[in-house]
Amino acid sequence: MIARLSAASPWLPARTGLVVRAVLLLGLCELVRTGLYVAFLPQQLSAEGLPLTAAGLAWTVHYAADTLCRSPGGHLVERFGLRPVLSAATLVSVAVVFAIPFAHTTLLLLILAALHGAALSPIWPAVMTLSSVSAPEAGQPKAVALVSAAAGPFTGLGFAGIGALASVHFASSSASRLHDIGGWPLAVLLTVQGGAVLLALSLQGRSLSAGPLRPEQPRRAAPPVSLRRTLAFLIPAALVQTLGLSLLGQVITPFANRMGLGQWGLYGLLAVGAGTAYSLLSTTGRLTERFGARRMLIAGLLLAALGLGLMAVRPPIALYFVLGALLGVGYACLLPGWGGLVSGLLPQEGRAASWGVVMTVENVGMASGPLLGTFVWDRLGISAPFLTGAGLFILTAGVYLWPSRIWRARALSGRPTPPGYEESGD
What is the pLDDT of residues 43-67, one digit of tens each? Predict the structure, then answer.
């Protein structure tokens, strides 16, 4: 079985163990992030009689700090290496998780949340870069898609697992200092974050750019103008792939209730979509290698647009599950297509910092989606968020139908055009 898993791995055999440890580190940090701010903190503040808006502000400040610091965080990894930067990031995170239950003012809570967000900011660009440069050219789309998909279960476990522990803890009437500062939920969060520290210490310490992760390939930096054009070209998909579905975040539950799905029906719909996407990732990764990342990205965007558009017409309840599966297929195409596009265009030199820029834009989409969704819901009706998402996906797909200028910029940098891109014309 181990041999079968190794054969299915998109990464070079010598790098698979390193990448797996880095992805596990990322997952543990996402579990702690979600468990702390979404599951534990609101219940703690409620138990202390503090306003729940403080928990919302803490999450917003934490996410904003993470977003703003991702490009500098990626640069730090490029300069100092995986082990020093990620070890410092996870150690600061342990300190913040321990200190938050003692933050009895909103100001102190927000300062800790911002520090936590800044500390975690290097992790995503570092792991994405490590995953892409540790895979052969043809395997990079699948490698990046696997990292993106791997974080989901950890996020869900943080929300559900820590949420359940916190509910039991704060419902208990036991009186002790341990109970007052967080009890078992806090102990689990600290243990998980401590595991991330150990994983960070196990990573190799060399810089991603100075240490030849792929010594057989020459490292060339794209000219600054070319790099700016490349990043500008990537921004539409970076923004829309997170914005397109996050705009449903605040309205999907009332929509499900209006349509007669109910809470359990909504859970089933989400499970169908997520299950379809996860089960098809290996297949769509191979298709991306065969047909090219741009084609798969466009296919994913159009399938997602079709699924959202058909949901907007409010079909019979049974069809929602079919459309959920269609959305899952769309995202299964979109993830490796997007990963292949980014890894195929970003220069080898300074890749972690460039990944940080791209992921900053992704976070902007994630943060602004709920606001846009609730706005169009209030102004235009319950179908408007779905139609808005579909329209955004279609417009973005159109952007990637004529990308010839970027391929010319790529040629100027001395880097070959990846398979599946060369058919683009003026």
Answer: 887 777 777 678 878 888 888 899 8
The residue that leads in pLDDT, 91 or 294, is 91
- Whether residue 393 contacts residue 236, with contact meaning beta carbons closer than 8 Å, is answered with no
Interacting residues of 137 by C-beta distance below 8 A, sequence separation 6+ = 344, 418
Three-state SS string over the chain comes to CHHHHHHHCCCCHHHHHHHHHHHHHHHHHHHHHHHHHHHHHHHHHHHCCCCCHHHHHHHHHHHHHHHHHHHHHHHHHHHHCHHHHHHHHHHHHHHHHHHHHHCCCHHHHHHHHHHHHHHHCCHHHHHHHHHHHCCCHHHHHHHHHHHHHHHHHHHHHHHHHHHHHHHHHHHCCCCCHHHHCCHHHHHHHHHHHHHHHHHHHCCCCCCCCCCCCCCCCCCCCCCHHHHHHHHHHHHHHHHHHHHHHHCCCCCHHHHHHHHCCHHHHHHHHHHHHHHHHHHHHHHHHHHHHHHCHHHHHHHHHHHHHHHHHHHHCCCCHHHHHHHHHHHHHHHHHHHHHHHHHHHHHCCCCCHHHHHHHHHHHHHHHHHHHHHHHHHHHHHHCCCHHHHHHHHHHHHHHHHCCCCHHHHHHHHHCCCCCCCCCCCCCC
Enter the tokens of residue 183: 């009890």
**pLDDT tens-digit readout, 363-403:** 788 777 777 888 888 888 888 999 999 999 998 888 887 65
Alpha-carbon torsion, ordered 302, 307, 312, 313, to 10 deg: 110
Q: Which residue has the tokens 């490349």?
A: 230
Q: What sign does the dihedral 269-270-271-275 (CA atoms) show? A: positive
Q: Two tokens at 82?
A: 């995986």
pLDDT at 419 (0 to 100): 43
- Alpha-carbon span 382 to 93, nearest angstrom: 40
Using a 10 angstrom Cβ sphere, with 0-12 exposed, 13-18 middle and 19 or more buried, the burial of residue 175 is exposed
Query: Rounded distance, CA 295 to CA 384, Å?
Result: 28
Helix axes 317-345 and 224-246, enclosed angle (nearest 10):
170
Specify whether the CB–CB gap between 18 and 214 falls below 8 A: no
pLDDT digits (tens, 9 = 90+) for 262-300: 778 888 888 898 889 888 888 888 888 888 888 899 999
Q: Cβ-count burial of 287 within 10 angstroms (0-12 exposed, 13-18 middle, 19+ buried)?
A: buried
Q: Are 122 and 68 in contact (CB under 8 A)?
A: no
